Amino acid sequence: MYFHAVGCGFYANSSGYGENSISLVIFAIMTTVGSTFTTGNPPKIIWSANRSNPIKQNATLQFTSEGDLVLRDVDGKVAWSTNTSGKSVIGMSINLAGNLMLYNSNNSIIWQSFDHPTETWLPRQKLSSGQRLIASASTTNWTAGPFYLSLSNLSNLYAFIEATPPQIYGQVFHGGYVSAFRNGRFFLTSDKSTMRYESETSNFQVYQWVEGVESVVADILTDNRGDCAYPLRCGNYGICSNGQCTCPIGNDGDPNYFRQLDFRQPSLGCVEATQLSCQSPDRHHLLELAHVTYFEFVPILANTDAQSCKEAYLKNCSCKAAVYRHNSSMSMGECSMPSKIYSLMNIQKQAVSYNYVTFIKVQKQSASPPTSSKRKSNLISLTVGAFLAATVVFAFFIFLYVRFKRNVLEDGLEEDGEWENSLVLLADLPKRFSHEDLKSATQNFDVNKRLGGGGFGSVFEGTLFDGTRVAVKRLDRLGQGRKEFLAEVQTMGNIHHIHLVKLLGFCAERLYRLLVYEYMSNGSLDKWIFHRTSEDALEWGIRKKIIINVAKELAYLHEECKSRIIHLDIKSQNMLLDENFNAKLSDFRLAKLMDRDQSQVMTQMTGTRGYLAPEWLSRKITEKADVYSFGVVMLEVVCGRRNLDYSAPEETENLLEILKEKAKTNELVHLVEKCNIDMQNTERKL
């Protein structure tokens, strides 16, 4: 097939990154029969030189006197080159088949774009051993993605997804649109068809252009495979069944081992509720998923039974799952143990010749001392009561707030060895990330991805390689806060609760100190209770749920953990909300551990002004300090304003003083924010 018009030049992917995402491309212009130019049809990109190294405006393309075609960015750096210097190149041309060529004085081709395929396989273009047809990361991101097509076993053409090792998920068979394998190369049978990898679906599709219109005429990989046999059909750990995506569920019906990345988009996949730790094999548990298999089955053990498959899997922490298949006898089958898990698929027993069962290793939460529901209920009641009693009794109190500024050398710029020694003392560490991993996840800590921050540093939104959205907290001053950093890793790495923000991992590399948390889509509580309009103010039901969520978390920290944990910085900024407005407590950098036989701890004054309990005056602290701070937050939630508001008139700056006066006149209900609140119900609660 020859195109009506083919060109080579700069092209800006305006649907993605605009002027900062320019590529040198070969494009085809689709025209209708009898016309000279296109009308409304944009150029079709069929090849890109610098797809993974985009350039900016004012970049230059030079055909050097040495015979090299060089693309330089605006700063002069080489973005791409044919590397043909000294090979007697005298000219360059492009033909209507879409092939850019450099040739010598004998008219022999020295270099051609057909030997460097991107994601489109053109007629007359041959695919040889060692070459890859690689799909772009997405339709707006032209960099190379994880899917590629390559020759394997000399004469077979397979579809892969990048992993360690790469995983095969489909085969392109001879015949039809792909010719038989000859002379070490594949090429297309039809002279009127173009084959292209689709980045979003990982499908390998055949296109034909008829009178300027491009249309799909075949889907090579989906034939006889169904819609579920694709690596990212339902994201990591997602189970595809008739096109629907779900997360793995325990044998006992417990759905809490995995959760969806985004319940509104199930196809994004699932993540572990508790991250698997190779250091705690005694807490590993196997989920058994009947009639579930994986798109790639590479037997590791043959002529084995299911029990032996499970035992081998449990001994190998690097394997993410075990898939056992057998015929009629459970004692004679094969076991596959992939090192990475993408989408799984639910199969109908009658549709395949094998029986399948998949085992997935999960981490059980650490055991906690049993506590009766009555005790929890009493604690919540006591929390509310203690706050109201405290605010009435303590009409006026003096806050002493001392903030010591530390320079970079206060904790000492410890060498990596000293940090490692400190980390070794901590048990059950969460996952450790490299600084480069987190730099990539946050796009080099882009200021546009900054979620917030404070004296400790800044928090950035990020996306890990597997698609998991995270919040990365970075200490802004190098070398600062070793005690606070270690306290947060130790505390949050060893406790798990539904209303506690999960610490996914950390980075302690050279002088970089970062913490990686689960992403909370609705941000911190203070953004929802202060400065909101009447239209978007939180309903009373949501406010009540938030208060109860935090009370349950405090009950867990104070009463259910092996050592009592005092948070010491309870405030609305440290209470984060997920997509369903469930509240989770965060920021344990100031937390203190208190043994069960201790009645109090001595510590210097820390925390945030406006939330500090009167007992800070004595520096002898108990868990009641958290209870008091929680009471202040509860009052802010109900009233819709800050405890200390210096923008208000002087007589109404302090919410606690207003509370005292309203209590005297039995007018507490007047403090309640009047936005979307059931006043009668609220008055009964107060």
From TrEMBL:
Pfam families for this protein: B_lectin, Pkinase
Every Protein kinase domain range: 445-686
Superkingdom of the organism of origin: Eukaryota
Chain ranges passing through the membrane: 379-402
UniProt xrefs under InterPro entries: Bulb-type_lectin_dom, Bulb-type_lectin_dom_sf, G-type_lectin_kinases/EP1-like, Kinase-like_dom_sf, Prot_kinase_dom, Protein_kinase_ATP_BS, Ser/Thr_kinase_AS
Coiled-coil ranges per UniProt: none
GO molecular function ontology, one term from the record: protein kinase activity
Ligand binding (ATP): 473
Gene3D superfamilies xrefs: 2.90.10.30, Phosphorylase Kinase, domain 1, Transferase(Phosphotransferase) domain 1
Keywords: ATP-binding, EGF-like domain, Glycoprotein, Kinase, Membrane, Nucleotide-binding, Signal, Transferase, Transmembrane, Transmembrane helix
Bulb-type lectin domain location: 1-115
Protein name as annotated: Receptor-like serine/threonine-protein kinase
